[in-house]
Structure prediction request, 277 residues.
Amino acid sequence: MNRQWKKIRKLKYKEVKAIRDHFRPEVFKAAAYSVGSEFRSLEVTLKTATHLPLLVELKTVLWPEGIVLENFQPLRAVRELLRAGALAGAVVATDEHFLGGDPSWINLLKYNTEISVLQRDFYVDPVQVYKAKAIGADAVMIDLQWVESDQLPSLVEAAFEMGLEAFLRIPEEAFPDRVPFEGISGVFFPLHSQNGEALAVSDPGRRWSDWPDHVFRIGIGLPAQEADIVRLVEAGVHALLLEDRFWTQPQFLDYFHQLFEWTQKYPLRSDKEPGKE
Prediction:
């Protein structure tokens, strides 16, 4: 376990303790469920999409370079992206110390847009998932790089209990031999660039050949050319999360508009839809 992970876990267990010291889990779960906002299913959005859906992640600390976005305004950014093209959803970082996120961003988007909102945090305890429901999240993104394998079932079960969709995020360093699909709506996985330009999608295609039909495959990358979109669609990718470098593009709105136009040229293949008979 590296030094950074030890720091993250120490902070997260401190946050969990503060919650448990003030609320019994049963009471906190009931309260969280009662105050949750209108549910917007990313699953439904992806299932009904005719063209490659696009998502963005909202945070102010970009990994792994540690670039800090100054004066970042998430609602303004999302509204501008919506005007530049369609946006299927947003991944909102709620960890303030390591990701530069903010829990208040979730309801900010829920009250002012119609998109699905996923919470990203470093999960170590189900009470964090209860809290995700309380602050309005529609789903949680559980990063396999930062969660212990024995903790994963309880986190996914907590999402199910709270009526949230659970998505996994596969680490950059290595693709797990076995992805735990039980109760999972979809998997985010990295798309690597070839020669710094074209996105490589052939390797993930071979890896997901044994994945259950109901699991959505969501690539994480930054297409450099129209041909990248063609490869993603042909490989059976169901959606694309724009990686952190998107926010460092000199004209990210122009880039997003161009990307959206590319996606509209290539309909998703109906035989690649999860759950399609």
User: Anything to note?
Assistant: The chain has one domain: 3-272. The first helix runs from residue 3 to 22. The two ends are 43 Å apart (CA to CA).
